[in-house]
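User: Let's play a game. I give you a shape written as tokens, and you guess the letters that built it. Ready? Here's round one.
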């Protein structure tokens, strides 16, 4: 019973995460760019060395930071996909390789479908590098989950003794 509740919670979290990713990908270039600019502004507004730059230098630096923030957002969201997928797979009685393969496969499939979806959004387009970045995030999420799982198992074994 507890396993079914846990699965349901994880599936709901995954659906919310997938919907969030879909929502971001549905934004046209202008709307997406404005959101990235807002985040970049908030991150950098108190960094004196950036604020002191002349207008052109500041714009160049902010554009580089914005690109980094966009890529980190991709990576972070898909890291969460990897963690949640492994959490879900852990509730099934299948071997570790199948759990990892399923988690990675679903993550890469969603990343690919998300990029294809962007083909139909005005001013956006599919980026193979984004699929690779997203897939890297899924792998890191899987590794984080596995490291956490190993540590948790060791703690529980120590507590049993």
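Assistant: Ready! My guess for every position:
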């Amino acid at each position: 019973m507890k396993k079914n509740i846990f699965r349901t919670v994880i599936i709901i979290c995954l659906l919310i995460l997938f919907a969030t990713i879909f929502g971001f990908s549905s934004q046209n270039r202008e709307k997406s760019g404005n959101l990235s600019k807002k985040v970049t502004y908030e991150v950098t507004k108190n960094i004196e060395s950036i604020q002191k730059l002349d207008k052109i230098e500041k714009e160049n630096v902010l554009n580089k930071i914005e690109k980094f923030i966009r890529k980190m957002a991709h990576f972070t969201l898909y890291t969460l996909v990897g963690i949640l997928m492994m959490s879900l797979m852990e509730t099934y009685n299948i071997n570790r390789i199948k759990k990892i393969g399923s988690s990675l496969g679903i993550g890469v499939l969603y990343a690919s479908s998300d990029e294809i979806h962007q083909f139909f959004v005005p001013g956006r387009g599919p980026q193979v590098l984004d699929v690779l970045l997203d897939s890297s995030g899924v792998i890191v999420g899987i590794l984080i989950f596995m490291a956490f799982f190993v540590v948790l198992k060791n703690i529980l074994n120590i507590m049993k003794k």
